[in-house]
């Protein structure tokens, strides 16, 4: 679902949600679960866009790596585009079934399967191209670093990575629908119990949701542009400022990515583009704040993609200061981080 202007009503995305959906593996912990790969393949925008980029970039005779091959769909697309050899790397058990799928499609002699973590892989020859659907919630993710590290070891001179570049964008939003969901722990006593302790965890969590550009209180800002072969994709740090264009309730920030895959093909997760599995990211404020037109919103944003604690691949940080028109100092300051969403005993 998408949120309409003012966050007061709902409309369906351009592609209707299926009536039955698998539970994403992030909730089950079964990384090789077929449900996860079905979830990916059901996103036709994602899959068809990657295949178009492969068809535009792969040259006959290329040696290609498909890092995180999963269902094998991108490895087979590379074969069809003319690759001489495809090294399909996958750490999870899905690789056993994927090998049979590739053989059933007559590509078993071209694809070499490697059942290992990429950090433990040494390829027998330099490669021309590394393909990986390595995108996180706002673009950079922990797997993107694996792609870069493999490229440093294995790409021949002049070799390429698909995707080539990722850009991150963010905008302040008014969305009572999302805010009400996040702040529900402070309302009432569910089943007769006080559950408000959970509110701090919820307010520092990162959410995925649909937005409409009409919910923006100010124009979007680009917070990063990263070329995978040249830039540090392990972290993003950026301070940006917004000038509110209409009065309303500031509920948080909407974030997304725009990616140059290669060959002139782009994949975007913005509210204005066709729906994808990534949707958009919602970074909530600790509490909604009424803002007038002309209010300055200062955002100090951080994204770290490498793990800082076990079983957590990375974290978001967003610190917000609101300065009303004519004021010299902030009226509200919020310091939030997804590290605070980890339950801790006191």
UniProtKB/TrEMBL annotation:
One of its GO terms (biological process) is methylation. Coiled coil: none annotated. InterPro entries: Arg_MeTrfase, PRMT_dom, SAM-dependent_MTases_sf. Pfam families: PrmA, PRMT_C. CDD domains: AdoMet_MTases (cd02440). Residues 165-301 form the Protein arginine N-methyltransferase domain. Transmembrane segments: none annotated. Keywords: Methyltransferase, S-adenosyl-L-methionine, Transferase. The keyword Glycoprotein does not apply. This is Protein arginine N-methyltransferase domain-containing protein.
């Amino acid at each position: 679902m998408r949120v309409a202007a003012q966050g007061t009503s709902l409309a369906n995305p351009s592609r209707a949600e299926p009536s039955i959906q698998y539970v994403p593996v992030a909730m089950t912990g079964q990384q090789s679960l077929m449900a996860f790969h079905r979830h990916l393949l059901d996103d036709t925008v994602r899959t068809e866009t990657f295949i178009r980029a492969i068809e535009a970039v792969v040259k006959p005779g290329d040696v290609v790596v498909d890092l995180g091959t999963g269902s094998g769909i991108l490895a087979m697309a590379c074969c069809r585009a003319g690759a001489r050899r495809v090294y399909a790397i996958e750490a999870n058990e899905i690789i056993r079934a994927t090998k049979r799928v590739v053989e059933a499609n007559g590509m078993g002699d071209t694809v070499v399967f490697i059942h290992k973590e990429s950090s433990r892989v040494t390829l027998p020859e330099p490669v021309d191209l590394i393909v990986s659907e390595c995108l996180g919630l706002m673009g950079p993710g922990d797997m993107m670093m694996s792609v870069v590290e493999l490229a440093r070891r294995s790409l021949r001179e002049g070799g390429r990575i698909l995707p080539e570049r990722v850009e991150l964008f963010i905008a302040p939003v008014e969305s009572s629908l999302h805010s009400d969901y996040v702040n529900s722990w402070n309302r009432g006593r569910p089943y007769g119990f006080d559950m408000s302790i959970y509110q701090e965890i919820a307010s520092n969590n990162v959410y995925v949701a649909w937005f409409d550009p009409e919910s923006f209180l100010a124009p979007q800002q680009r917070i990063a542009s990263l070329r995978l072969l040249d830039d540090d994709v392990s972290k993003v740090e950026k301070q940006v400022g917004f000038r509110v264009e209409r009065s309303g309730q500031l509920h948080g920030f909407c974030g997304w990515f725009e990616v140059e895959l290669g060959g002139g093909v782009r994949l975007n997760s913005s509210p204005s583009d066709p729906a994808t599995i990534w949707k958009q990211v919602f970074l909530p404020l600790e509490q909604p704040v009424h803002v007038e037109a002309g209010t300055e919103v200062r955002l100090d944003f951080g994204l770290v993609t490498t793990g800082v604690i076990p079983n957590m691949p990375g974290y978001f940080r967003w610190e917000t200061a609101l300065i009303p028109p004519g004021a010299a100092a902030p009226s509200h300051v919020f310091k939030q981080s997804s590290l605070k969403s980890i339950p801790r005993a006191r």
